[in-house]
Amino acid sequence: MTATDPGQVPARPAPIPLDPSIAPPGTRNFRDAGGIPADQWHADQNGETLVPTHCCFCGVQCGMYLRVDAGGKVFGVEPRNHDINRMRLCPKGLNAYQQVNHPDRLTAPLMRRSREDTFQEVSWDEALDFTVSEIRRIQGAHGNDAFGLLGGASLYSEKTYLVGKFGRVALGTRHVDYNGRLCMVSAAGANKLSFGIDRAANPFSDILLTDCLLIAGSNVGECFPVMTQYLWGARDRGASLIVVDPRETAVARTADVHVALKPGTDSAFFNAVLHVIVAEGLTDETYLAAHTTGWQQVKETVRDYPPERAAGICGVPAEQIVQVARMFGGAAKAMAFHARGVEHHSQGVENCLSIINMCVATGNLGRPGAGYGTITGQGNGQGGREHGQKADLLPGGRSITNPEHRRQICEIWGIDESELPPAGTSMMEMVWQMQRHEIRGLIGICNNPFVSLPNYGAVKQGYDALEFHAQFDFFLSETATNAHVVFPVTVWAEDEGVMANTEARVVKHNKAQEPPAGVRTDTWVMCELARRLGAGDKFDFAGSREVFEELRVASAGTVNDYYGITYERLEETGGIMWPCPSTEHPGTPRLFEGGRTYHPDGKIHMQVVEWHAPMDPYTEEYPLSLTTGRTVAHFLSGNQTRRLGGLVEQTPRPWVEVHPSHGYRTGDPVRVVTRRGSEVFPALVTEAIRPDTVFIPYHWPVPTAANALTIDALDPRSKIPEYKVCAARIEPAEKIDEVPAPPTAPGHQAYPAAQVSRTDPLPPTSSQGRGTAERS
User: Fold this and answer.
1) Residue 389: which of 206, 179, 195, 226 has the closest Cα?
2) Which stretch of DSSP H or E encloses residue 483?
């Protein structure tokens, strides 16, 4: 062929060198480190391998490939055509790999004997010995329950299983809980009360089959971006969309009905919707008679919530309540999903129950396109609460107060029943116990309460009162800076394990590279501490695989049955939804088919719900509602995402969304004041929020921490904090509070590529919905 032959394959153009003066932020750093952009979906370096795994961030758990060079180093990412995400990744997923070899990584234990001292890098033996001596000193003087353990829902399920076992067997303490207490427990409580099982009822694929989709308290487009493909798929085949949220989020802007209700009024709204459904004969009485208990009491209760009454409580038109009832109740197949906007309340369990009641009353459960679910926040938000790191639960979702459940676990663990502690207290209650010196020592694993817990002043006071505090982490978090010992542990790509996503689909994460010298897995650290505490025979695990085999046995026969799930099956299938009682069982994608639940009688136990006002009262001094949430570029406490240049550039700082009626311009310094304190943020002026409500994203520490302002009131059943509503006021200020750089180990400076945009005083260039102001 000649060069002009039309059949000739054109030669590849030579790569264009990056001009450092015009390269996108961060590009040069990672190119110099050995990475080059993905090209036409194939490996383009000699010796490169693609390791199949999943994202480390939210509960969608998108499939991805980590790109590993010939030297065994992760340097890039490609989306994976997994059933969950089908080649899609969000901004966090695209940047997640950059934390693996990040210069901020901790690579040696840090230790100090007093908080007045500075951290010093020490050997593992010195750090472990000091920790064990402090555990023995505190427990010897004050009893086993004087030491606490807090885990995390971003850990693999194998590690969450070990957290519960380590706390109760090696430490012998009742005080074991985890940061999923701040996320999913209201939904868990409602699910257990209604259905006898705690998980979403339907797979994502059922969304594509529904005729009406209701999303309550979830900013899906920013918090779970890849999940939106299912929303759009349903819309493409004609499904109607209802969004219930005080903000007009990106998804709400596209909805058939956006209910911009006042924060803290969800259960009043859904009771009123059910009132209309009953009044207009839209209930499925045949289904209710065959499959439920408690329906008559629920029906009597919602009579007291006519649309006119609820409209006054919720601040929405009564006609809109009727419209939602007719749309949802009149659909042949309807689905409802909710997230933290419904759950983060002192009535979080009731809010979830009111949505369940609406679904059950219309017969929308247990069918393709008809069902109910909660959208998990953390990567292992579902799996993280299933196997024993929650204060009141043992592996397999067993109750720690049930004598038979206790007997079963003691037999598996090889301990006497008298050795198993009773139920402990919740994460926030543990902080109050620290203040009272009831808890004097603490180990934290994969959590950052100085940013994530409400009422920062109370949290700092509690942690300062600890006589000894150790943290496991791979970056130095704000909480870890307050500790006596910090153990450097692996990131997700340096170990293997499983997570359960929003659908309760158990997926396998694979190890892509060896950890840096001096770094250990969380599993190794817990097992080594247990050995030094004299319980090594109960923690003889070489790694995740051995832990998972014990987890399978410990869950067998429970509603959270993992026994039929193996690593080999997960790699073959791409994920299995529990319960899965045998290796021949296909898993359970859809619950409640045929109307049968996991209560002994097989019925749905409908629960009466009464609305009550939020715990922080409104007054003339505090007339507004402050609510909080996430933004697309960041994740939870931000300890990971605030270090990644591309994400910091996209969203460098928090802001306060205010309605134009308050008279501010975008960028104006606005002081937000609650009964816990005040902070100054740049205004983002937008019509996409209620006039009586302000919003602040919560990924940053003090002095720009939304959770320095939120109230530490708890739901009496789930013990979840009331993050989503507290009384506030706003006022003009002179100077915007500066965003601090993320903490780093002694002798290190914050990664420069993630600091340039952090000083930008302005909010994002556009609001989440309809903006009315411009950057000036």
Assistant:
1) 179
2) none
